[in-house]
Request: fold
Amino acid sequence: MGILWALSFVSLLAMPIYFRYDIAIMHISILLSSFILIQSILNGIQLCKHILLKRKNPAMSGFLARVRLIPAMMLGAVLLGQSVYTGYFIVKNIISLY
Reply:
């Protein structure tokens, strides 16, 4: 699935550059950036939900199980907060609606 995403990103950005269609480059890059931002917010929510539901599971393996210095829920909250703050910053400062 990741290869499909990578190929679609490359083709969506390479074709307008090849044909020198500047307005399409801007709109396609905004579209792809918004997909990445929404995906990071959804992954942060999914991570927090996973940590809350599976925190008593001794079979939980992976990176979050090996982290001993930072509690997993704090790490999930930081990742989610970073994504939400980035979205807020973009809407407030870059996409001026006023």
